[in-house]
Amino acid sequence: MAKSRLLCVSLGLVLLFHGCLARSSNFEQFQNECQINKLDSIEPVTRVQSEAGFTEWWNPNSQQLRCAAVAVLRETVEPQGLVLPSFTSSQQLVHIVEGSGVVGMILPGCPATFQDSQPQQHQGGQFQRHRDQHQKIQRFREGDVIVLPAGVPHWFYNDANQPFVTVTFLHLGNIVNQLDRNPRKFYLAGNPEEEQKKLQRLQQQKQGTESEPQQHNECTNSLCFKPEYLAQAFNVDEDVIRKLQEQGKSGTIIRVKNLQFIEPPRVQHEEGRRGSMGDNGVYCAMKMKENIAEPELADFFNPQAGRITNLNSFKLPLLAHLGMSAERGVLFNGRARFQVVNQNGESVFDDYVEKGQLLTVPQNFAFMKRAGNEGAEWVSFYTNDNVKNTPMAGVGSFMQGVPEEVVAAAYQISREEAREVKFNNQNNFFFTSSSSSRPQPRAEA
Amino acid sequence: MAKSRLLCVSLGLVLLFHGCLARSSNFEQFQNECQINKLDSIEPVTRVQSEAGFTEWWNPNSQQLRCAAVAVLRETVEPQGLVLPSFTSSQQLVHIVEGSGVVGMILPGCPATFQDSQPQQHQGGQFQRHRDQHQKIQRFREGDVIVLPAGVPHWFYNDANQPFVTVTFLHLGNIVNQLDRNPRKFYLAGNPEEEQKKLQRLQQQKQGTESEPQQHNECTNSLCFKPEYLAQAFNVDEDVIRKLQEQGKSGTIIRVKNLQFIEPPRVQHEEGRRGSMGDNGVYCAMKMKENIAEPELADFFNPQAGRITNLNSFKLPLLAHLGMSAERGVLFNGRARFQVVNQNGESVFDDYVEKGQLLTVPQNFAFMKRAGNEGAEWVSFYTNDNVKNTPMAGVGSFMQGVPEEVVAAAYQISREEAREVKFNNQNNFFFTSSSSSRPQPRAEA
Amino acid sequence: MAKSRLLCVSLGLVLLFHGCLARSSNFEQFQNECQINKLDSIEPVTRVQSEAGFTEWWNPNSQQLRCAAVAVLRETVEPQGLVLPSFTSSQQLVHIVEGSGVVGMILPGCPATFQDSQPQQHQGGQFQRHRDQHQKIQRFREGDVIVLPAGVPHWFYNDANQPFVTVTFLHLGNIVNQLDRNPRKFYLAGNPEEEQKKLQRLQQQKQGTESEPQQHNECTNSLCFKPEYLAQAFNVDEDVIRKLQEQGKSGTIIRVKNLQFIEPPRVQHEEGRRGSMGDNGVYCAMKMKENIAEPELADFFNPQAGRITNLNSFKLPLLAHLGMSAERGVLFNGRARFQVVNQNGESVFDDYVEKGQLLTVPQNFAFMKRAGNEGAEWVSFYTNDNVKNTPMAGVGSFMQGVPEEVVAAAYQISREEAREVKFNNQNNFFFTSSSSSRPQPRAEA
After folding, report:
1. CA distance C285 to chain A (A)
2. What is the mean pLDDT of residues C48-57?
3. Which residue of C has its CA nearest to B157?
């Protein structure tokens, strides 16, 4: 039977994400965050229920995530769920794990280019302006990766019939984040109190400080200015502002029926337009998402083994600004089993990564993905915009870059064995058709 | 009466500076420098008197400045005061708060392009070279912002009839600073001992270490090499070197009558020439300063409300190399009152910022500038070369980028109220004519 | 007699490296890594013996190296010594102190462009592929500086008749290193256990943690995956893999007689070809080394005094990607004596730097290299790709950039003395012919 495997050295940090079995990480607190002797595939530790969905955070203080300077959260949004507008101080990649919906981003300094020239139905008629206009919104679907630059407010809406699930990676280590390395979400609406308290508790656990009994705040988002100030800013009555500030039900995902917005006809083929570079390196008109699940988008493909789709800054130029990239892999046979080896040759991980689990591979640690008995899929996130993993075996690998005699000498094997080690795997780094057969012609284009 | 206000989310760190009321910040020492629950407008904590002026430092260990990785000092220089040559390991922006004078910078590798072809009056005649030559010097005046790249020695001279006051921002967090985050000034002349000891004491307070009783040093600046070595380097007698190293009166600002240097005729219109990029990203011939106080330079203007002038790397390209920018605002009516809200919706600041006070707005914290009853001016410094604040209200704001129905749903208000919130302020982000009137046509060009 | 000297302010961190006298650094542990009151020229603290050479590390936890975020090691490789393949998570510069040999690098994604079209002698003939092919290898010799981007596996071989000695600088502070600031070498072959344990012990000393009694590992390099996994990846029998993983003698430098590899004819003139930029900013075809010892390559030369050769990104463009540079100096008369002065005017170092010793000059500290009685050579490494030191005396110096009257006023000397200080040294920043003579015409081109 065909077996698939992948042996690599990570040039950047790899966050392997796969897809539910409880295992908690209990690293000792090292002074030194990357002295990793053991990795665990980890799962979310907190869950915040909202009206129309829930938010789960992986522990941002686990050693592996601190070493990677990354925070990860997952949101599950029911049909008609609106994820209230928020932004963060760090670059984000959002992977649509399942489902579909709509995302709106408000890019600073960009015009509201979605305009409705049809008169809207409304009573009263006392407004001179009858038509709504807003910034660009976009549809997303399973397999999409959405790029969210730091500081860009955004919202999501589920107008489909099934829940959608997103996994969001916040790169706290990027120089764009000028705050410390605690994840922070700044909500512009809603009641994020529970989420914020839970995140704070995780941080205090790490610091060993005692959580002071916190009083309940009436207003807990970034719009909590004095009503009179806001009334002036928005030029509306203070009553309206008090309504704005009223904290409804707990949470940041609310249920709204049939939300309407201006939208182009659905079957639009988005082009990778490069607008002129904006002030913050953020464009008004540019590609903000790309699909990595469609089989025809694969960069490496072997009909017997599987496929890998890279998403780097050549496909999505904005990634260069973010300093992040992603990859999705599918192995037709086998659950994904990973082994990771540190600089001391110690196996810091050797296990299956189950659906919904997260594994962090620190920079330069050697890792290997291996087929189990069922089909496997994973998504990797890199804190680099164009990661080149160095394969150890196969075409273009480390082993094939070293002279045969050096291989023989370095590993104290015969010249003939060196030749086997070097050339027996004539497939690309990802695929081999079988463990015992002789080299095969490559099946890829 | 017209009221002016500004509601924003800061994309970068903002150091709002305004301009004497003692308030000290006594943050508890958090392990975590950006867990900010309370901001204070802060004032300098140390003052070093020199012969012809004085230097004041804000506490570089206050939590807000450590979170921002910024140090701030103010110098007041009397007429005929010479600020002795120094440089730092971090990028600096110098704002001329009042007065005028002359600044000289010595850019490494650049020629002495200010040359005197007139024979100088001097006795003796034993020198083959009778003419002085030196690097470019420039006049500055109130409202100028001067850019000082890391490592560039510079000096200031007051040849006017009134004192000048400068406020200097050192961006310690920029990658160019390869030392730790303590501010350091390296003086090439003078006696900076008192200033250095005071800065050290502030650092030791933070670390809780006891200040060892320090002995008095005879020579305390960067030219304190062995006299015999320097005599060789400069090819002069050791006696001359001993004079060079003699520490005069304490301080770094001395009084010198009628200092003369080679200078172009005064009414020179400096152009924003872009020389060829130098080795360190520093040019020999380029624009190093720009005025932000002149009303005609305003980027946003409303005759009833006020004006804002941005200084970014499009106006002063060197700022792109420094990763900093600035802004000056004037509100015709009202002292500047600020409210700042953190990610938990807590109001961490809500007060007037008086003349000479400093307020730090951490990245992404929402803030609002608001008119009091008198005219107000402020200068903001950003640790970003092209900051885009996201306005929350008015034209181009967050609220106008979101579909009306999403606004209504997110804040649980009626469709009509959403429309008011979204469109009632039809002015740009800075100005509204009145809090209760209906939308007005924009008054700006 | 002609004396040579150099007085500068370092714009970047300078690691002065020179030629064997034991002096250990015992800085107190400051909370603050760059509060340097005393520098020492330091020597390696650990030595790991391998079969065909030895490796020495400077203490990566000494205050000066931590302030500089740099680690330094020296390798001495006997004839027929093979330095086993490894890579690191940080950018490296390797200086060939003496001897010559061959280096091979395996750049990820680059093809094996060294191919042998001659049939090789081998028994059996059961392989379809009879010819070896591997990535580019290059000869190096004394005075070369080799650039090793982070994550690029590389090996060295000594095919000459005498040992070669390399000094390697790892820039841990570069943003490319996403792990913590402990140096890590990832070996792909060999038994690096002793080296790793010694490095770990140094780190634990700093942290004050007790070294747990460590058990002996059977396999200690990055290829220590489960044999069955590797057998599949390489498509070879598990027996071969077990041989690969067998840990031979301790160490990372083994002896191999007459290693053969495909190589161009020796007297090749390598050009500074700039290939198209690769994904990681690393090229497949580009210049990876440059000599800085050849007299004819000097940038500053005075037949009486000495010479200086800079190596920056204009000569070796890859350095811009690494953010490092180097310089080699030769003083014909005199051992190199250095004095370094901190921001408080304290002389933190004033001594000879002997062969094999390392001196760190923190950013912006003023330093002076001065002739003793014998010839002197040194190599400086900078954590900047195009460092411009600001000379204090001579042509193009700080002193010559300041108006004469400002010099007189700043140092309280007469106008005539100021003129001497400013113009008496009319040579370039490096050379003066004598300490007491009058200005001479410049001897350089």
Report:
1. 14
2. 94
3. C406
**B277 contacts chain C (CB < 8 A):** no
A318 occurs within a structural domain: no
Structure tokens belonging to residue C327: 């310089």
Contact yes or no for A260 and B405 at CB 8 A: yes
Is A52 contained in some domain? yes
Give the residue among C397, C387, C388 at the shortest CA–CA distance from C428. Answer: C397
Inter-chain touch C409–B236, beta carbons under 8 Å? no
Name the amino acid, one letter, at C170: L
> What are the residues facing A406 on neighbouring strands?
none
pLDDT band, residue B162 (cuts 50/70/90): very high
Q: B66, B14, B33, B37: which is closest to B390 by C-alpha?
A: B14
Question: Which CATH number belongs to the domain containing residue A289 in this structure?
Answer: 2.60.120.10
The domain in which residue C236 lies consists of 12-293
Cβ within 8 Å of B, C 314-343: 339, 341, 343
Asked if the structure places residue B324 within a domain, the reply is no
**Nearest to residue A437, comparing CAs of A422, A424, A427?**
A424
- Alpha carbon dihedral C300, C306, C311, C314, in 10-degree steps, equals 10
pLDDT band at C215 (very low <50, low <70, confident <90, very high): low
Task: For residues C44 and C379, give the distance between their C-alpha atoms in angstroms, rounded to a whole number.
Answer: 17
Q: Kindly report, residue by residue over B225-276, the tens digit of the pLDDT.
A: 888 878 877 878 888 888 888 877 778 999 989 888 877 765 444 443 444 4
> In 3-state terms, what secondary structure has residue C416?
helix
Long-range contacts of range B62-66, CB-CB < 8 Å, 24 or more positions apart?
Answer: B62/B25, B62/B27, B63/B25, B63/B27, B63/B29, B63/B30, B63/B33, B63/B36, B64/B25, B64/B27, B64/B36, B64/B39, B64/B40, B64/B360, B64/B362, B65/B360, B66/B33, B66/B181
> In this prediction, what percent of chain B has a pLDDT beyond 70?
71
Give a yes or no: residue A422 inside a domain. no
Q: How far apart are CA A262 and CA A260, in angstroms?
A: 7
Cα–Cα distance between B187 and B228 in angstroms, integer? 21
The number of distinct structural domains making up chain B is 1
Classify residue C211 by its DSSP letter: P
What's the pLDDT tens digit per position in A248-267?
777 899 998 888 887 776 54
What is each CA distance from C362 to B207, B225, C332, in whole angstroms?
22, 16, 26
> How many CB atoms are located within 10 Å of the residue C214 CB?
12
**Residues C277-310 as b or e (16 or more Cβ within 10 Å = b):** ebbbebbeebbbbbbbbeeebbebbbeebbbbbb
* pLDDT on residue A103: 92
- The most distant pair of C-alpha atoms in chain B lies apart, rounded to whole Å, by 90
Interface-testing mutation among C299, C368, C384, C406, with chain B (most B C-beta atoms within 10 A) = C406
CA neighbor of C148 nearest in space, from C311, C3, C322, C17: C322
Closest CA to C138 of C280, C315, C285: C285
Give contacts of B102 with chain C, Cβ < 8 Å. none
> What's the rounded Cα separation, in Å, for the pair C241 and B433?
79
Closest-CA residue to A326 (of A99, A146, A57): A146
Best mutation target, C137, C225, C226, to test chain A (most A CBs within 10 A): C225
Restricting to B residues 44-103, those with a Cβ less than 8 Å away from any Cβ of C are 82, 84-85, 87-89
Listed in sequence order, the residues at least 6 apart from B416 whose beta carbon sits closer than 8 Å to its beta carbon are A122, A124
Query: What are the two backbone dihedrals, phi and then psi, of residue A55, each rounded to the nearest 5 degrees?
Result: -120, 130
> What ipTM did this prediction achieve?
0.71
- Using a CB–CB cutoff of 8 Å, tell me whether C109 touches chain A: yes
Which one is predicted more confidently, A435 or A166?
A166
**Residues of chain C neighbouring A410 (CB-CB closer than 8 A):** 82, 84-85, 155, 188-190, 254
B378-393 tens-digit pLDDT:
777 777 776 666 777 7
